[in-house]
Amino acid sequence: MKKFFGLFLILFSVNCFANWTFVSANDDNSIKTYLDFSTIKKIGAFKRVWSLMDFSKPNENISSKISSFKVLEEFDCNGERRRTIQITSYSGRMGSGNSLGTENGDGQWSYVAPGTIEMATFKKICK
């Protein structure tokens, strides 16, 4: 029971005290992206950061239950590429509510396209 309580406190504190800073939104403002700059870590030539994607209404293309995602992303600043390390979906806005599941990324790099939410994130992380 003590181990469970300790794990609960750690997870609760990470979620409650994340310092999400608005970065970008899509054209109709239905998806907003935020970064927690305090989580940026340089790993060799790459940078990792936690981001949050918040939907103004549940994203029916994915699931009617999902209102937000927390994503651990890795950026190759020299190659203008990114990849997803881990993604967790939530029932509530801004990473609140129930965790609906966590998946690991496939490890594949993709180039960051100009004019996208990903490019706005890339520019903030790799400046």
What is shown here, in short?
The protein has 127 residues and is of the alpha+beta class. The protein is built from two helices and seven strands.
Topology:
Elements: H1 2-16, E1 20-25, E2 31-43, E3 46-55, E4 68-76, E5 81-90, E6 99-104, E7 110-111, H2 117-125
Antiparallel strand pairs: 1-2, 2-3, 3-4, 4-5, 5-6, 5-7
Q: How many independent structural domains? A: 1
Q: What profile does the largest beta sheet have?
A: 7 strands, antiparallel
Query: Class in CATH?
Result: Mainly Beta
% residues in beta strands: 35-45%
Tell me how many strands there are: 7
User: Based on helices, strands and strand pairing, what is the structural class?
Assistant: alpha+beta
Mean pLDDT over the residues: 86
CATH superfamily: Surface-adhesin protein E
Order of helices and strands: HEEEEEEEH
State the helix count.
Answer: 2
CATH topology: Lipocalin
Assembly annotation: single chain
The percent of residues in helical segments reads 10-25%
Tell me what the CATH architecture is: Beta Barrel
Radius of gyration over C-alpha positions, nearest whole angstrom: 15 Å
Q: What's the shape?
A: globular
Low confidence ranges: 3-14
